Amino acid sequence: MSKQWYMNEISNREQKINELRIDMIRERAEMQREITLLSEKANDAERTNVQLAKTVEEREQELSELQDKFKKVFSLRFNKLIIKIYSKMIDDHAAKMNEIDAEMRTRERLTNVYKEAQEASEKEIDELRDNEARLEHLLRDKEEGLLYLDVRLFNFN
Predict the structure, then answer these.
(1) Beta-carbon contacts of residue 97 (< 8 Å; ≥ 6 apart)
(2) pLDDT (average), residues 134-141
(3) The whole model's pTM is what?
(4) Hey, where are the domains in the chain?
(5) CA 80 to CA 87: how far, in whole Å?
(6) Phi and psi at residue 28, in whole multiples of 5°?
(7) How far apart are CA 127 and CA 142, in angstroms?
(8) How many Å apart are CA 34 and CA 75, to the nearest integer?
(9) Residue 77 contacts residue 136 (beta carbons within 8 Å)
(10) Mean of pLDDT over the chain
């Protein structure tokens, strides 16, 4: 085999390694974009969760204020009617609270899913980095081997 063939072989391998590096950089950029997107979604879910908690607190305060108003407005004669209305309101409020609580749990699960996806993406990026390092190490080994063969062929001739 000629020196030109070896040089062509080295050039082809270097080109392939460069292509692999470019692919890896693209993958890394895509992963980073996904991580950013998932982080933004997790932050949005967290903000919504805080807003819902505030809404629940406001509704509880409104309920407390309504209870006070009912006590002042109605006389003893309408106590039974008031109790029925009050119970209905409490049931409605409890149903709304349950809906809000379910929504908050759903958002929390969604936040957890986003966080897990982000962690998985970060793990995959770490694996890609490890693969890159391993490929670079293999490339150095190949280059050293080719240099060794080149020196031996040169000394042989």
Answers:
(1) 56, 59
(2) 93
(3) 0.35
(4) 3-156
(5) 10
(6) -65, -45
(7) 22
(8) 62
(9) no
(10) 88
Give residue 127's identity as a one-letter amino acid code.
E
Tokens standing for residue 87: 């119970």
pLDDT band at 130 (very low <50, low <70, confident <90, very high): very high
**Which H, E and C letters describe 110-126, residue by residue?**
HHHHHHHHHHHHHHHHH
Q: What is the DSSP string of the chain?
A: --HHHHHHHHHHHHHHHHHHHHHHHHHHHHHHHHHHHHHHHHHHHHHHHHHHHHHHHHHHHHHHHHHHHHHHHS-GGGHHHHHHHHHHHHHHHHHHHHHHHHHHHHHHHHHHHHHHHHHHHHHHHHHHHHHHHHHHHHHHHHHHHHHHHHHHHHHH-
97 and 59 Cβ atoms separated by less than 8 Å: yes
Six token digits for residue 89: 């309101």
pLDDT tens for 37-93 read: 999 999 998 999 899 899 989 999 998 988 887 777 655 556 677 778 888 988 998
Specify whether domain 3-156 bears CATH 1.10.287.1490: yes
What six digits make up the tokens of 68? Answer: 């006070």
Task: Tell me the mean pLDDT in the region 106-127.
Answer: 92
